[in-house]
TrEMBL record:
Protein species of origin: Antarcticibacterium flavum
Identification of the protein by name: GreA/GreB family elongation factor
PANTHER family documented for this protein: REGULATOR OF NUCLEOSIDE DIPHOSPHATE KINASE, TRANSCRIPTION ELONGATION FACTOR GREA
Signal peptide coordinates: none
Superkingdom of origin: Bacteria
Positions of the Transcription elongation factor GreA/GreB C-terminal domain: 54-127
Amino acid sequence: MKYGVVVIEEKEHELLRRFIGLSQEYKDQTYKLSVEKLRNELLNARIVRNMDMPVDVVRMNSTVTIKTPFNVEKTYQIVTPDKSDIRKNMISVLAPMGLALFGYAEGDEIQWQFPAGEKAIEITKVRQPAMSLKANEL
């Protein structure tokens, strides 16, 4: 793990905490395991201000390219649940994949429990929308 712990922007941290609180009623076991793992990671997460957020960390609206153990590369955008559309490769931050990637950085490899079992995924690229970049990085 590049930064030792997940790194989360302070407003997004609060949003995730609210989402997790609302997700208590879900019955899907894989989803529950994903939420529980994120909840535990949030306990030790490094919470930073927007201006101090590393640009290579997955956050809301990040575009993330991952590589699976089968050498398949796929690019997704991490979005709020209401904007999720898998046909457009826009996945909810609360989907198992969104939960798996959030707060991790480019180059990190993550073990995560997916519906088909535990898989290793590698984050090969992270891009931020221009509006969330620091002024000196535009």
